Amino acid sequence: MSSKPQKIGLLTTTSLVVGNMIGVGIFVLPAVLSNYGSISLLGWVFTAIGALILAKIFSNFSKIIVSRSGGPYVYSKAGFGDFIGFLVAWGYWIACWVSNGAIAIAVIGAASFFVPELATNSVLSVSLGLGLIWIFTWINSRGIKESGRIQLITTIIKILPLLFIIVFGLFFFKIDNFPSFNLTGESDFSTLSAVATLTLYAFLGIECATIPAGDIETPEKTIPRATMLGTIITTVLYILGTVVLFGVLPLDILQNSPAPFAEAAEVMGGDYGGYFVAIGVIISGIGVLNGWILITGQISMATAKDELFPDFFKKKNKKGAPVNGFVTGGVLSSIVMLMNYTEGLVDQFEFIIQLTVIATLLPYLFTAASYSLVIIEKKLHTKSWIKTFILSALGFIYSLWAIYGSGPDTVYYGFLLLLIGVPVYIYMKWFKSKGN
Questions:
Q1: % of the chain surpassing 90 pLDDT
Q2: Rounded to 5 degrees, what are φ and ψ at 201?
Q3: Which of 54, 125, 342, 425 has its CA 20 to 30 A from that of 401?
Q4: Please, what is the Cα angle at 14 between 12 and 15, to 5 degrees?
């Protein structure tokens, strides 16, 4: 007999949004952006506006389709039907477990700051990476409350180093360190586009509150608040963190720094400041791994409930967790991680990571387009259809630009990845029809 269904509230749901957006990459990104100049701050603002538009669409959708887990899959399916819904779920599911393998590798890289042997000892690195994947697979299998508790704790811990840099960095800020507006020699427009593309990936995860909707208390209220609040918090941390780093570290040091936040912390608090941030980076990676493992199991379960994934993924344990989805995701993530430590397969690993970019962005495109279609079908907001169309159009245009900005190779191979899903969809439809 199953125990009482577990539900999470506003604080934990918000931590899922913030925690899944703030990963390991943001702790390195300001060094990359400094090569473009202070125009990169405009890139942050531009990207943040696009992310907030998409967050608003996801928020509004969660009020229309209530208590249905699946997020972008469910919303795309509502507007375009089973086929598009399946392709969104297929690509998104693959992107999740591939990314989890990459996150485990990133955590190992961050941990090598304290244990240098991790950078040279493949057996030790692989053992730690696999251990992380399966520890958090086990934690998620204990129910969403357990996973949510870990998510909340790690999100708070990962935010602390960023706040430390932002607050105390003001006392070490020197305007002379601030880079010139455009350092590239290219036009401001092309530079802004390049920077906005770089910053875009830091916002992937805005949809995370909508995916476990069935396990959230009063989802029609909690999900919209968590989505908008989480996106705003993340935006403020990103922009202020970059501004402070631009003023604390001299440009030549910042541009060549593999860990700019840690270096800035050393300027403020010596070695202990650097250690504090380095630990924050590791915790950040651990938290984002926990959050995306949760999403991997939830998206496969939601799709299976609609008979578009095998029934195998529907199974829940006594804690109400989609245990088969977690275990399958764990196995696949482990394979991806192992590929990085197999000579000759590193390029293939990077290639697969590139494929997942489009699989993550397409759900935004279809969700934005589906929004206005669902509004019309359900005859909602009849007095503000113009606002609805504008919001939907802005979200669609931004998503389309993001896909274009990811590069032709990513788009081409990403669509090939989705095409692989077509025969899977045909088989699922045939198999289910035979079963009936």
A1: 64
A2: -65, -15
A3: 425
A4: 60
How far, in Å, CA of 234 to CA of 206, rounded? 10
Cα 391 from Cα 396, distance rounded (Å)? 9
Average pLDDT in the chain? 89
Distance, CA of 21 to CA of 288 (rounded, Å) = 8
pLDDT at 380: 72
For tokens 């960095």, name the residue: 169
Which residue is associated with the tokens 């990676």? 285
- Longest CA–CA separation in the chain, Å: 72
Q: What does the alpha-carbon distance between residue 119 and residue 108 come to, in Å, rounded to a whole number?
A: 8
Helix axes 188-200, 385-405, angle to 10 degrees: 100
Measured CA distances, 226 to 9, 15, 123, 213, 333 (Å) = 9, 8, 40, 12, 28
Cα R_g (the chain), whole angstroms: 21
Residues of the chain with pLDDT under 50: 1-2
Which among 24, 21, 27 has a CA at the least distance from the CA of 263? 27
pTM (2 d.p.): 0.91
Helix (H, G, I), strand (E, B) or coil at 8: strand
Q: What are phi and psi of 207, to 5 degrees?
A: -90, -5
Span 88-122, pLDDT tens digits? 999 999 999 988 988 898 888 888 888 889 888 88
Q: How far apart are CA 27 and CA 258, in angstroms?
A: 9
Distance CA 350, CA 340 (A): 9
Residues 309 and 89: their CA atoms lie apart, in Å, by 9
Burial of 392 (0-12, 13-18, 19+ CB in 10 A): buried
8-state DSSP, 24: S
Residues composing the chain: 436
In 171-259, alpha helices (H)? 188-200, 219-248, 251-255
